[in-house]
Write a structure and sequence with these properties.
Number of helices of chain A: 6
Structural class of chain A: alpha/beta
Number of strands of chain A: 8
Helix content of chain A: 25-40%
Oligomer: homodimer
CATH class of chain A: Alpha Beta
CATH superfamily of chain A: Alpha/Beta hydrolase fold, catalytic domain
Distance between the termini of chain A: 22 Å
Strand content of chain A: 15-25%
Shape of chain A: globular
Strand order of the largest sheet of chain A: 1-2-4-3-5-6-7-8
Largest sheet of chain A: 8 strands, mixed
CATH architecture of chain A: 3-Layer(aba) Sandwich
CATH topology of chain A: Rossmann fold
């Protein structure tokens, strides 16, 4: 088995996008997975994570949600791009739906239901995709919960939320609000709150702050990966 | 492999207790697990669950926390016994510590660290045992979180809390209070909140209410069992 990376350039609402296909061409037909990066946009970390997901038996599209040539290199540039993307949640939704459609153009992607996993801003993306009513089997969110300023469509995706309890972007009120939203939507959901864990708990290169509110948490990184793998197995 | 049940009668604070040993005598030395029942006390449901845990490679003691001859048969009698047990949390703690010590008298129990799993009132018991500073590798709680009216000892147990989001005994404030308590204790903890799930989600014989606040939830029953199995594997 040899997993390959191929750049995929396409048009979608808002312009031209440069996503990355990550898959094993010899594996035959497999279900697809969308991977949404954090606020910096696509980068080596995402491609590496995608390879590990592909090794589980999936065709992965690492989604460029910003647009070709638009990538964050630090907190400031990333935050600017994030503001631009999230300022119009309806347009953002339309972009997400277009990326979802693009996944089916990868060679060997099984038609029908896929999974979507997102980290930080990508977590908001996968929730919004589920909220759009997209036909997705399972969604795995790693942080960022706020709902758009418009009603959800009928949701079909099962949801797994991997939550750092100390994440300042996801305080207890936001977590409870998400739980209420998903309960009212009647959708199958689970949320794992991890202690001594903050934002960006999967980011190996970011040391954990003293108050455990931000940075890599190896126990949670390992446990949430396993929870995702188990959830994928249950979703398909 | 043949798992056997043996009644175990012993003295502990408050009187005489009749617990149930559940184990495979042919299996040699194995780690121990304490199983604490719900507010009705020990019954066939617990012995059956204990057999499934024993089959994973453990010697199990199903703990009679009320005392010999004291069992609930309905909501009223069970609630009366619960009130009696929980009225004095310091005495309750001393009883729990005695049951923990009793586990090591089972044939073939490995000295050292054990696990403890509890359901509903039993969930409070395993938390209180962890709060007492008992040398326990892993504690799995299924509901009921309120802290005793005295300070915790230094806690060593890892904790997994399996939480029905709609459980009226564990509203969001109680859940957040537990998370704060465990965070301040510096202990390794995780809490899985399950949507559309209430109190008693593992009780096969209790139909789920229309508002999903009470009764059996098959998805959550299956997922929380798997989470417990994975957690045991990580704890030892």
């Amino acid at each position: 088995m040899a997993i390959e990376r191929h750049v995929r350039i396409y048009e979608a609402p808002g312009g031209t996008y440069e996503s990355m296909e990550v898959y094993d061409p010899a594996a035959g037909e497999q279900p697809g997975v969308l991977l949404f990066p954090n606020f910096l946009g696509t980068k080596e970390w995402d491609f590496d994570k995608a390879e590990r997901i592909a090794a589980l038996g999936f065709k992965v599209l690492v989604v460029d949600f910003y647009g070709q040539g638009k990538r964050g290199t630090d907190m400031e540039s990333g935050s600017g791009l994030l503001q631009e993307l999230t300022a119009d949640r309806a347009l953002m939704r339309d972009k997400l739906i277009a990326h979802h459609a693009e996944l089916f153009k990868l060679p060997g992607v099984r038609p029908g239901r896929v999974a979507a996993v997102g980290f930080c801003l990508g977590g908001k993306c996968v929730l919004d995709l589920a909220r759009s009513g997209a036909d997705i089997a399972g969604v795995v969110n790693h942080g960022v919960y706020d709902a758009p300023p418009f009603a959800n469509a009928a949701m079909v995706a099962k949801l797994l939320v991997c939550h750092g309890w100390n994440d300042p972007l996801c305080p207890p009120e936001a977590t409870a609000a998400l739980a209420t939203e998903l309960t009212e939507a009647g959708v199958d959901w689970q949320l794992i709150a991890y202690g001594h864990t903050g934002h960006a708990f999967t980011a190996e290169s970011v040391p954990l702050t003293a108050d455990a509110s931000f940075g890599f948490q190896p126990d949670t990184n390992r446990r949430s990966w396993q929870a995702m793998v188990d959830f994928f197995a249950e979703s398909f």
